[in-house]
Design goal:
The complex is a heterodimer of chains A (396) and B (360). Chain A is of the alpha+beta class and 396 residues long. Helix content of chain A is 33%, strand content 15%. In chain A, the strands form five sheets. Chain A has a five-stranded mixed beta sheet. In chain B, a hairpin with a 2-residue loop joins strand 10 and strand 11. In chain B, helix 4 runs parallel beside helix 8 (294-310). The longest helix of chain B is centred in the last third of the chain and has 17 residues, at 294-310. Classes of the chains: A alpha+beta (396), B alpha+beta (360).
Chain lengths: 396, 360
């Protein structure tokens, strides 16, 4: 262990102030773990010279998997030998991030024994992040995790760990069982999660309603967002109670409706459900009075991603409405076709959204056997350069 | 590889979430009727059966030691029968059925330094990436900026006085493993210089066609230099995305003099009222100034203040700006509009104003 870990004036400054401090966490772990001690030293060095000190991954992992471990090496190993190797393990979280403390304690025990004692609850993919260990500790840590009932999540060019909102476990707006779906699809794709076989990453996220609490539309290649098709359920007495309690139903509810499909006369809230955009605003403001309708399912969207490589994209509508009942055969068949096509035709490091841009959404739909539908676009094309594969010929 | 005699478990997948649900949830799964927020950081969900579930939401630094996780577990054991969950924004949620335990739990959390809040019209925890803690391509740190900023914004976490929800996210480079691109306020680490090519190392560790193909602007060309097959970068085409560095470690972009932070505003993911939207550039560059990044903190606090003072109830940052117009936003926020604010990548023309609908 380096002595430098005890001299961290810049990081010490971040132990002060009202928000809980990550520096305190590093110091707590460092009390019994030399890796966490040297991590303090490396980060203090970065705070001094304003540059990171981690090198590229390299291939490390557990036997039989090609994913779930992020290889990491320090570029100052002589100064901080305990973090010369500092690989991270992604551990697939339980759907909805629910835990019983005994399970969480087992994960802590594994990581105290085989890693830095530092974690992220949770990482951007949703996984439990076990932050930093040495190559020879990966296999024993993995054995400890599987013994505790946990498995690794995805990394690299795989189906990434699916994640979802709290769903019907604690939300009255869930239009499908996001947790049951996420658990099911995660088990279904174990091979695709652990063994890279795709052009690039493929993320699946499920939100139970259009509030999209897991940011599925922005953060997932395949985004499932719960919707309903029938009428919003209205408890008129409860609406009147909100009004009596000071909610400006005409202004702050009807006035902010993007579809302008509601009217309030002081007694009754009238909704033109055919015009409703299913945006959730009115339901969000008056949860005791309004609920999503009963004919519930999910809108399936595709192609969301961050900027790398050819610019950020939001997912766009692929299937306007799908019933989401176990065993989710329609969805699994659809995803299977998409993965097969993209694995065959996609370029290295080309996300499925970029692939669709390159080949054209129409051609993509043809290839996976979906009919074009007006819900898929904001408006029909404006550009008159239209391709045709079929045309008439003079009969001979 | 020697054979290991013990059976080795693989592909078991995550534990089934159902075993981790508290009994009140199992009994009322999918049968919740409505919820209320009786006070900041506390939710009550009422089931059709009449059962009530109380949630106490606490902020966390995301980076947690096993020692602290065990203390969090101790609290869940004491107050919640051992059941807890985490949110998509790194908050800890304690799940209770006895409302008389809420105050003692909040007192214990306060004693341990965990603020309770993040509900309703408030700032929730900042979603962020690893930064200098663990990332090879970071243009800035993540945890440090988040800590410095939340020290200033914590009052908006523990109260619900903002016009609408405020979602702030930080990614330490454009890889955006934090997916900040649809946030009310996004803090994004940026590189500003082309990669420095190590011509000696490159042929040994990188595959030339992959490196050439990695560039979204076709700035990378294969060349022969001093007998080595390597690449060159047309620097005027480089937009510092770092994709080449990700596929080729011999092309580092990190540059302490020129790396820093940009600020983006007005994105959202929810469909409520307006459609989901990307964040747009507010401030192209601020310096890395650890440990407290005062320029970044001041810029974000200013944006929050200006929005809070001018937005209508329920109006998210982007909805407010859409209503008043971008020229007025830049004036109110006191931010200079520069060449960098005008897009010049693909589909840039779709962001140009193609009307004379010019809001004052």
């Amino acid at each position: 262990m380096s002595d430098d870990k005890d001299n961290t004036p810049k990081l010490d400054e971040l132990e002060t102030g009202p928000w809980p401090s990550f520096v305190r966490e590093m110091k707590r772990a460092a009390g019994s773990n030399p890796m966490a001690g040297d991590l303090l030293g490396v980060v203090e060095l970065s705070y001094d010279d304003r540059v990171g000190h981690w090198k590229h991954g390299g291939i490390v992992g557990v036997r039989g998997y090609g994913a779930g471990v992020i290889g990491r090496y320090s570029d100052v190993p002589e100064q901080f030998p305990e973090v010369a190797q500092f690989h991270t393990m992604r551990v697939n979280h339980p759907a909805g991030w629910f835990y019983k403390t005994d399970a969480l304690r087992k994960v802590c025990d594994v990581w105290e024994k085989h890693g830095s004692g530092l974690t992220n609850l949770h990482g951007a993919t949703g996984d439990i992040i076990l932050l930093g260990t040495k190559t020879d500790q990966l296999e024993p840590a993995f054995a400890g995790l599987t013994e505790a009932g946990f498995d690794l999540g995805g990394s690299g060019s795989v189906v990434r760990t699916p994640s979802c909102c709290v769903g019907p476990a604690r939300c009255e707006w869930a239009c499908f069982d996001t947790l049951a779906f996420t658990y099911d699809i995660t088990q279904h794709f174990q091979d695709e999660i652990h063994r890279p076989s795709l052009p690039y990453k493929f993320k699946i996220k499920a939100s139970g309603c259009p509030n999209d609490c897991v940011a599925a539309i922005a953060r997932a290649d395949l985004s499932l967002i719960g919707v309903w098709r029938d009428a919003i359920e209205v408890d008129q007495a409860a609406v009147r109670q909100y009004a009596a309690d000071g909610v400006d139903v005409g202004g702050e509810v009807c006035g902010r409706c993007p579809a302008k499909c509601m009217a309030w006369d002081g007694e009754t809230l009238a909704i033109d459900n055919g015009a409703c955009a299913k945006c959730m605003h009115c339901i969000n403001v008056m949860p005791k009075a309004l609920r999503p309708g009963r004919e519930r399912g999910a809108c399936i969207l595709i192609g969301g991603k961050a900027p790398i490589v050819s610019g950020a994209m939001l997912s766009s509508v692929l299937v306007p409405f799908m019933k989401m009942e176990p065993p989710y055969i329609e969805l699994k068949e659809l995803v299977g076709k998409i993965l097969e096509l993209w694995a065959d035709e996609g370029k290295n490091r080309e996300r499925v959204g970029e692939f669709i841009q390159r080949v054209g959404l129409g051609n993509f739909l043809d290839a996976i056997g979906l009919q074009p539908q007006p819900e898929m676009v904001k408006h029909p094309r404006e550009n008159p350069y239209v391709f045709y594969e079929e045309y008439f010929e003079e009969e001979k | 590889m020697p054979d290991t005699p013990a059976p080795r478990k693989t592909d078991i997948g995550p534990p089934d979430f159902r075993q981790f649900l508290p009994p009140v949830i199992t009994a009322n799964y999918g049968k919740w009727k409505y919820h209320e927020i009786p006070r900041p950081g506390v939710l009550v969900h009422v089931a059709e059966s009449g059962d009530r579930l109380y949630t106490v939401r606490a902020g966390s630094p995301r980076l947690l030691s096993v020692q602290t996780i065990r203390e969090i577990c101790d609290l869940a054991d004491r107050y919640c029968g051992g059941y807890l969950r985490f949110t998509s924004r790194h908050n800890i949620e304690f799940l209770l059925t006895d409302p008389s335990k809420i105050d003692p739990l909040i007192a214990d959390l306060a004693a341990k330094g965990f603020p309770v809040g993040g509900t309703g019209n408030a700032i929730s925890n900042i979603v962020h990436t690893q930064g200098w803690i663990h990332c090879h391509s970071a243009a800035t740190d993540a945890s440090g900026i988040v800590k410095a900023l939340m020290d200033e914004l914590v009052g908006h976490f523990t109260s619900m006085h903002l016009p609408g929800k405020l979602r702030v996210a930080l990614a330490c480079c454009v890889n955006m493993c934090g997916a900040v691109h649809c946030s009310d306020i996004a803090i994004l680490g940026v590189h500003r210089r082309p990669p420095k090519i190590n011509h000696e190392r490159l042929p040994k560790v990188c595959e030339l066609p992959t490196v050439v193909a990695s560039c979204p602007t076709a700035a990378i060309r294969p060349v022969r230099k001093e007998g080595r097959e390597t690449v060159e970068v047309a620097e005027e085409l480089c937009m510092f995305c770092g994709n080449c560095y990700t596929v080729c470690p011999a092309m580092p972009l990190n540059d302490p003099l020129n790396d820093g932070v940009s600020i983006w505003v007005g994105g959202k993911v929810s469909n409520a009222r307006s459609e989901p939207a990307f964040s747009k550039l507010a401030i192209p560059f601020l310096p890395n100034n650890p440990p407290r990044w005062p320029e970044v903190v001041a810029a974000v606090v200013n944006l929050v203040d200006v929005w809070a003072a001018n937005a209508r109830k329920h109006e998210r940052m982007g909805e407010w700006i859409e209503r008043i117009g971008w020229p007025r936003f830049f004036r109110l926020a006191g931010i200079e509009f520069t060449k960098q604010h005008i897009d010049d990548f693909r589909h840039a023309e779709t962001t140009f104003r193609r009307s004379v609908h010019l809001k004052g």
